Amino acid sequence: MTNITQGPKVYPVDFEDFLDFVAKEEETKEFLDRLRKLAKKRGEFLYFAGGVVRDYLLFKKGKLNPQSSKDFDIVLEGNLEKFLQELNEDLNKEILFKSQFLTYKVRFFLDGEPLEVDFITARREVYEEIAQLPKVFPSNFMDDLLRRDFTINALAIGLSAPYEGLLLDLLDGLKDLEASLVKPLHLNSFVEDPTRIFRGIRYKVRLGFDFSEEFYQALEVCYQKEALKKLSSARLANELKLYLFKEGEEILLKLLETTYQLEVFKEAGLEVARENFPLLCEVLKEVKEEFSPKEREKVYFLGMVESLSGLERLGFSEVEITRIESLLNNFRGFYHKINTLSLKEKLEWFDKVRREYLCAFAVIFPELKEEIFRYLKVYSKVRPELNGEDLKKLGFRSGKEIGEILKILRLKRLEGKVKTKEDEIEFLKKFLVKNE
């Protein structure tokens, strides 16, 4: 598929228009200008590649909102470490991390405002084992474009000589972009790096593209070599988390369905409950503002899998899986008798379970979703106005007794039998008399 016998196709672009797309703030434009001048001074080729170039070209075709670009790669064909050291002379910056793949994440402070930028060394990649991370070597821009996942991401726009202000197309990515196709660079692409499959699905769904014939062929080669099964739990889980956290709930269902239809879950050794997908997406949307990312992640994975063995494939610890299994078994018993339980008994059960697990149980037991969300959104938020110190002043002993009294006050509030702090005090006075 990849047949390179000459240099890239070169096209002119409206360079100032491109910079306006990339840099929304004047300070950012000035920052890019500094990078360009330094690259020229050092005689090194600096360029944008990947998502930002792709998204700019889609924007010019009216197929993408200007605020929708999520990728920002600046690549240097040269010594990136020395480039950043020299840049330090007139810019306040902080290197957040340097990776084994010759990349840096750097935070700059422009007029006091932070700007985080990913810098990448133009590199060549060598995959020695199926589904393993590659060895990387500094190289030229052509090798850098040839290591990319899809032709639509193997496009570059130069910021300095010899291709300043020019669009570079080594693999007819522009043609595939026009045709709205997600096309891998070669048939072993997914064998080398199976995570490219998940990225391809994200591009297809997010951009409204189609898979090329070569995508399906590369997928078949990947399945024949069982590359997805060799993908580590951490990398598999991370790709699925990107569906939720980078793409969002609006297209999550389509992402999961596409992944299922391509049999990616099955080939990765992950049994999923497809019938749960619609409700799972609905639940995740409902708790988006209230739950932390880690809590939403737990809901997402627990609501997705067919059985608890799937959690091991996603990197859950044996201890947590055992805890969830115990809760799930208890919940099944609770599920069968819930209609016979009093509000007090329901609260006693719900209070023992972490809310992210409860939320996942709302997906696993859809008949209980309304009851669980009533607890999460109403019952769990109701608290007495009196606190432990107030109860001590009223004559209650510290410790367990106070905890039990606070539970009683909460129940009375939920039942509407007390509504104010004064009501609570009056109730407790009667309670003390009754229990003398």
UniProtKB/TrEMBL annotation:
GO biological process, one term: tRNA processing
Poly A polymerase head domain: residues covered: 46-182
GO MF term list: metal ion binding; nucleotide binding; nucleotidyltransferase activity; tRNA binding
Name of this protein: Poly A polymerase head domain-containing protein
Cofactor(s) the protein requires to work: Mg(2+)
Family: Belongs to the tRNA nucleotidyltransferase/poly(A) polymerase family.
Origin species: Thermodesulfobacterium commune DSM 2178
InterPro entries the UniProt entry points to: NT_sf, PolA_pol_head_dom, tRNA_nt/polyA_polymerase
Keywords for the protein's UniProt record, in alphabetical order: Magnesium, Metal-binding, Nucleotide-binding, Nucleotidyltransferase, RNA-binding, Transferase, tRNA processing, tRNA-binding
